[in-house]
């Protein structure tokens, strides 16, 4: 009988000595201990493994029986008789069974050695019983303790019985053959006893190795330490057995105190083992706290550290950590001899011992009764013994840690282990909580730094990060392009469709920009509707322009939002490094200037040039001066350009044209300052000035006996503001001017751009009797059909079509067809820019209703105009006549043709 069994810490690998102790000979039991949960009990891999083991067992049994019947000791009796054979057999059986059932376990350097003292009854039996009876005693004792006490499976019991049988019969043969006629208590007897014990040991070891091989496992290799320990313990058992035999030989009663002393020593040793284990637990607890104190504060690696430590301290084969905060998905990390699993999500099933601990916050101990099949848990999987303790956050359980299966099966978890484990987990809770707090802090720091460097709305880098990236690009790259993009008329989207749509539009634009640059540049949002790009490694501005065109194509694809289809365009300015500067601030400023020029020129992209700068400087200067001029009102004045009625030839009304004469900079053309005013948002002040001044003048003319209409230019953007109606109305009432004397002119392109917003205001103005005219008609691409839907009264054909009328056949066709169409829609037509009589005559011939132009009069001061009108001014021109010529038809003035 093997005296020493080691149960090493190895978890998955087959420990050959366990074969006998735990009877781990079914293929199922030789598989690695299940570490993944809810794996079904593994099926015996193949029936032939089972058959082979049974075959081997049967062979051993047959050999044993054959040796008993035909062996050299066949028929031999006991060497000496102490009691009658049945009594002696009973004594041997009982002591043998007790030795097998309760081995002494030695814990040394993480290994547990099981010390089976069965050699003592065996040697006594070899002397005081007939050899065959010794074999029978061994078989009965093993059968009793494995089948009844430990309730092993049939196959294991059968193997263990056969193994003990053959080892004992071999021991009996060796003993009797070596002993011969010598006394058992002589040196020869001692040698024979030692040889018999070694023979048993070797024989049993061999059978275990065979069965290990049969079940497809490789027997564990024992290190020198284990081999030495085994040899020493074999020697100790051997000596003990010989001492007991000698005592029994000399005086059987002497064995009683001897056995008593042995029992006391074993008892004391067991007590000592418990104490030392408890002490080592305390040591472990201390080590554990220390390890946790210095552990990695990364929560997942901290969890693995915790699991590794609890496995060591609890001498468990595996452990699991389950986190189940109410706010998150339950998840777990497992640890076994193969290492840690990743974090995996799980569902908390109420039946699980883990769920129960999390629900109650109470630790619990779960041991499967000896002989029962292993327990199965929906989370922890298959286990024999388990201890679960809750992970607490203050007073709330937020998870649990479970350790499963002791390294050595003979020593399941007990109440002391539960207490120790609960303490460990409480320590772990604190450490994990600390790791979690650190993670939270880290997350907060990360998100704060993200917030500080990114735009909240679009998630793009913000100005701060843009400046950093641009500076880095300038350092690293030979050529950098800085692009500033400004969405055209974005303010109108916000004003008319609301900020929610505006925000969504910005996000969509951000996405499109990102998609279009596809990693070639950093895209940032600098604020409002302004985006910026840093493009590295470009030296040719054309390349940057190309990229901007690509962006524009992407942006111009219609954007559908809440049933509306929006088309977005952007104006871009580009500054190149190193040509236009080598620091980010300067480059941004220059890209900004280029962008303004692009907006002004209604182009999409402009590369910075020195000219722009002067332009910009003048604009900035004029902007400041204009604000001042509007405050004082002294530098601004109005000129009036008359408009004649083609039918009656009377002066029907005048167009008020704003003039700015600066004391220092002189005359500033309206084209220049109106543009600046539009960009600076000063247009409403200019409109108010012109309206007031114009209406006041109309009142003065009325007093002078002149009743005349007034046309005022209004910027398209103003029609988005409902206050315009109130402002115009107040002005008319202030000077008591009938609404139908006032015409508001707005350019075609402007009104089309703001159509949605403008419609309501236009209708309200129209309802008050104020007339509306479309200025510069023909420069945009709007369809008359569309304009007709608005409450528009008149159409002013742009002077580019009119000025050259006599020489441009195509203009004649355009003018003629425009007049025809406008009339068919019930609109009056005015032609501006008529500079000569022939033009006027041609316009009249084309049935134009009103004419404005230098031919009739240049814009005049109010007083001059008053005098001019009172002097009987008329729109005078001679009608044209058609004279056929070689080309078809030419028009000539009647007066000139004679
Ligand atoms: P507009 O509204 O189309 O005004 C007509 C412009 O054509 C005036 O230029 C006028 O002097 C010019 N013009 C009239 N007849 C002839 C002609 O026979 N030949 C030529 N070559 N030009 C002629 P002006 O006064 O320089 O105004 C330019 C533009 O400035 C105006 O174009 C208008 O868009 C804007 N503007 C002028 N005053 C105001 C104002 O008070 N408010 C707003 N919003 N815009 C104004
Ligand atoms: Mg006008
Ligand atoms: Mg015009």
Task: Please give a handful of descriptors for the protein shown.
binds ligand C2E; binds magnesium ion; alpha+beta; eight-stranded mixed β-barrel; 898 residues; seven-stranded antiparallel beta sheet; 52% helix; disordered N terminus; 30 helices
Short note summarizing the structure:
This protein is of the alpha+beta class. The chain contains 30 helices and 30 strands. Helix 4 crosses helix 6, helix 5 (119-128) packs parallel to helix 9 (224-250) and helix 7 runs antiparallel to helix 8 (187-214).
Write the layout of secondary structure elements.
Blueprint: E1 4-7, H1 16-21, H2 27-30, H3 47-70, H4 85-101, E2 104-108, E3 111-115, H5 119-128, H6 131-149, H7 154-179, H8 187-214, H9 224-250, H10 255-294, H11 299-314, E4 316-323, E5 331-336, E6 339-340, E7 344-345, H12 353-360, E8 364-367, E9 375-377, E10 381-383, E11 385-393, E12 396-406, H13 415-453, H14 463-476, E13 480-487, H15 490-497, H16 499-517, E14 521-527, E15 530-536, H17 541-556, E16 559-561, E17 564-566, E18 570-577, H18 584-600, E19 605-607, H19 610-632, E20 636-645, E21 651-662, E22 666-668, H20 670-680, H21 683-703, E23 709-713, H22 723-734, E24 742-747, H23 748-753, H24 755-767, E25 771-777, H25 784-788, E26 794-797, H26 799-802, H27 809-824, E27 828-832, H28 837-845, E28 850-852, H29 862-870, E29 880-885, E30 888-893, H30 894-897
Parallel strand pairs: 18-19, 21-23, 23-24, 24-25, 25-26, 26-27, 27-28
Antiparallel strand pairs: 1-3, 2-3, 4-5, 4-12, 5-6, 5-7, 8-11, 9-10, 11-12, 13-15, 13-18, 14-15, 16-17, 20-21, 20-28, 21-22, 29-30
């Amino acid at each position: 009988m093997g005296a020493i069994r080691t149960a090493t810490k190895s978890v998955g690998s087959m420990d050959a000595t366990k074969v006998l102790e735990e009877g781990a000979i079914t293929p199922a039991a030789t598989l690695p201990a299940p570490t993944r949960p809810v794996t079904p009990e593994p099926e015996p891999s193949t029936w032939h493994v089972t058959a082979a083991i049974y075959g081997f067992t049967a062979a051993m049994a047959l050999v044993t029986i054959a040796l008993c019947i035909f062996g050299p000791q066949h028929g031999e009796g006991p060497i000496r008789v102490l009691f009658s054979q049945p009594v002696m057999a009973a004594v041997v059986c009982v002591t043998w069974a007790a030795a097998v059932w309760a081995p002494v376990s030695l814990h040394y350097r993480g290994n547990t050695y099981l010390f089976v003292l069965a050699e003592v009854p065996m040697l006594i039996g070899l002397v005081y019983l007939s050899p065959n009876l010794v074999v029978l005693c061994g078989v009965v004792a093993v059968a009793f303790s494995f089948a009844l006490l430990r309730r092993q499976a049939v196959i294991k019991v059968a193997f263990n019985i056969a193994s003990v049988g053959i080892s004992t019969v071999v021991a009996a043969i060796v003993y009797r053959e070596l002993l011969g006629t010598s006394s058992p208590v002589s040196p020869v007897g001692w040698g024979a006893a030692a040889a018999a014990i070694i023979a048993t040991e070797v024989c049993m070891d061999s059978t275990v190795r065979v069965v290990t091989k049969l079940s497809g496992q490789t027997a564990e290799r024992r290190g020198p330490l284990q081999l030495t320990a085994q040899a020493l313990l074999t020697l100790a058992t051997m000596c003990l057995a010989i001492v007991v035999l000698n005592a029994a030989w000399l005086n059987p009663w002497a064995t009683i105190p001897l056995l008593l002393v042995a029992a006391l020593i074993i008892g004391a040793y067991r007590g000592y083992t418990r104490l030392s284990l408890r002490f080592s637990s305390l040591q472990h607890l201390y080590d554990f706290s220390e390890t946790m104190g210095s552990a990695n504060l990364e929560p997942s690696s901290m969890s693995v550290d915790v699991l590794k430590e609890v496995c060591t301290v609890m001498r468990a084969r595996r452990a699991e950590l389950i986190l189940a905060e109410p706010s998150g998905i339950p998840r777990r990390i497992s640890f076994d001899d193969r290492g840690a699993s990743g974090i995996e999500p799980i569902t908390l099933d109420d039946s699980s011992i883990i769920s129960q601990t999390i629900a109650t916050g109470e630790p619990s101990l779960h041991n499967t009764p000896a002989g029962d099949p292993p327990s199965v848990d929906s989370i922890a999987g298959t286990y024999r013994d388990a201890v679960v303790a809750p992970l607490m956050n203050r007073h709330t359980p937020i998870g649990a840690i479970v350790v499963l299966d002791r390294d050595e099966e003979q020593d399941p978890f007990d109440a002391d282990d539960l207490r120790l484990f609960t303490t460990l987990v409480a320590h772990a809770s604190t450490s994990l909580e600390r790791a979690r707090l650190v993670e939270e802090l880290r997350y907060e720091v990360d998100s704060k730094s993200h917030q500080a460097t990114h735009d909240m709305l679009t998630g793009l880098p913000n100005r701060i990060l843009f400046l950093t990236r641009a500076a880095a690009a300038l350092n690293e790259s030979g050529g950098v392009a800085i692009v500033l993009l400004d969405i055209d008329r974005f303010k109108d989207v916000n004003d008319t469709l609301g900020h929610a749509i505006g925000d969504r539009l910005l996000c969509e634009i951000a996405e499109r920009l990102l998609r279009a640059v596809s990693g070639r540049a950093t895209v940032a949002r600098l604020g409002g509707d302004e985006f910026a790009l840093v493009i590295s490694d470009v030296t040719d501005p054309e390349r940057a322009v190309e990229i901007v065109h690509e962006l524009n194509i992407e942006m111009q694809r219609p954007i559908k939002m809440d049933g509306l289809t929006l088309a977005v365009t952007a104006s871009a300015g580009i500054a190149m490094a190193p040509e236009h500067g080598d620091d980010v601030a300067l480059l941004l400023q220059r890209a900004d200037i280029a962008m303004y020029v692009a907006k002004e020129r209604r182009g999409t992209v402009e590369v910075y040039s020195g000219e722009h700068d002067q332009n910009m400087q003048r604009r900035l200067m004029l902007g400041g001066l204009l604000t001042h001029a509007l405050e004082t009102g002294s530098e601004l004045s109005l000129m009036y350009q008359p408009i004649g009625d083609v039918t009656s030839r009377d002066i029907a009304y005048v167009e008020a044209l704003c003039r700015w004469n600066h004391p220092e900079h002189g005359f500033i053309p309206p084209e220049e300052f109106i543009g600046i005013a539009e960009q600076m948002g000063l247009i409403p002040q200019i409109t108010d000035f012109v309206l007031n001044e114009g209406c006041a003048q109309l009142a003065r003319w009325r007093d002078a006996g002149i009743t005349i209409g007034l046309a005022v230019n209004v910027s398209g953007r103003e029609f988005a503001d409902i206050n315009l109606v109130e402002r115009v109305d107040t002005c008319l009432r202030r000077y008591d001017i009938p609404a139908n004397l006032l015409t508001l002119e707005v350019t075609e392109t402007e009104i089309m751009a703001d159509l949605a917003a403008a419609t309501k205001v236009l209708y309200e103005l129209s309802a008050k009797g104020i007339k509306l005219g479309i200025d510069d008609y023909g420069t945009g691409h709007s369809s008359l059909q569309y304009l007709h839907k608005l409450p528009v009264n008149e159409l002013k054909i742009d002077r580019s079509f009119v000025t050259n009328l006599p020489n441009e056949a195509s203009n004649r066709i355009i003018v003629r067809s425009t007049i025809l169409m406008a009339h068919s829609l019930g609109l009056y037509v005015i032609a501006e820019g008529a500079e000569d009589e022939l033009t006027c005559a041609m316009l009249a011939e084309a049935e134009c209703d009103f004419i404005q132009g230098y031919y009739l009069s240049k814009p005049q001061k109010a007083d001059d105009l008053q005098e001019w009108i009172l002097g009987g001014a008329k729109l005078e021109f001679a009608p044209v006549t058609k004279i056929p010529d070689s080309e078809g038809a030419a028009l000539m003035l009647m007066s000139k043709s004679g």
